[in-house]
Amino acid sequence: MFDNVAEGYDRTNAVATMGLEKLYWRPQTLAEIAPRKGLKVLDLAAGTGASSVKLQEAGAEVVSCDFSVGMLRVGKRRYPDLDLIAGDALRLPFTDETFDVVTISWALRNVNDVDLALREMLRVTKPGGRLVVLENSHPTWKPFRVAYLEYMMRAVPVVAKAVSTNPEAYEYLAESVRAWPAQEPLARTIEGSGWSRVQWRNLTGGLVAIHRAVKAG
């Protein structure tokens, strides 16, 4: 599915989120990661690598990993200097305690086993290292939440039909957002997989949330 939407994926996301992804949500996640020279970051489910470029520009040593070879092909053409690796979040192709930070954006809900994926991220993180997750979440104000779900289920597929090469994929993505747990249950899942000091921060009234955690030293 992601191979089929790779070419227009970044453009479709920009339109469907009305620019919030690029202008607000991604910069907030970048600030949470706090990339700097010498920091080794795994950008998991990096897609075409658009998020990885910002980390690299800040001086971090970045590995971009994605399950979709189609996404990585597009990324290699656009950003030839990125370190792009095909890999499965449930069986990461990295040795233990490799990275200072592991980050995943809008993809944790797409893995087949969330707990196993989180444990794999924990395995490849150094003691004292961090996890940063950006994901769709549950708006904290109920009327807003109802309107948001209505938008996701009805408007996003329509928008995708106009700008995406595979609009059917966005029907699945809208369904996955509806089924995804709220902030607190996700925090419990992260903690249950072995991470410590789990916290979250709502963005745009809880439309999305950044969850962060630390690997105990």
From TrEMBL:
One Pfam entry name: Ubie_methyltran
Please list the residues that bind S-adenosyl-L-methionine. 48, 66, 88-89, 105
Q: Which PROSITE patterns match?
A: SAM_MT_UBIE, UBIE_2
- Swiss-Prot/TrEMBL catalytic activity: a 2-demethylmenaquinol + S-adenosyl-L-methionine = a menaquinol + S-adenosyl-L-homocysteine + H(+)
Name the Gene Ontology biological process terms.
menaquinone biosynthetic process; methylation
Q: Which GO terms describe its molecular function?
A: demethylmenaquinone methyltransferase activity
The record's keywords, sorted A to Z, are: Menaquinone biosynthesis, Methyltransferase, S-adenosyl-L-methionine, Transferase
Pathway the protein acts in: Quinol/quinone metabolism; menaquinone biosynthesis; menaquinol from 1,4-dihydroxy-2-naphthoate: step 2/2
Superkingdom in the source lineage: Bacteria
Under Enzyme Commission nomenclature, its number is: 2.1.1.163
User: Known Gene3D superfamilies for this protein?
Assistant: Vaccinia Virus protein VP39 (3.40.50.150)
Q: Name the family.
A: Belongs to the class I-like SAM-binding methyltransferase superfamily. MenG/UbiE family.
**What's the stated role of this polypeptide?**
Methyltransferase required for the conversion of demethylmenaquinol (DMKH2) to menaquinol (MKH2).
The protein in question is named Demethylmenaquinone methyltransferase
The record lists the organism as Kribbella caucasensis
In the UniProt record, the gene name given for this protein reads: menG
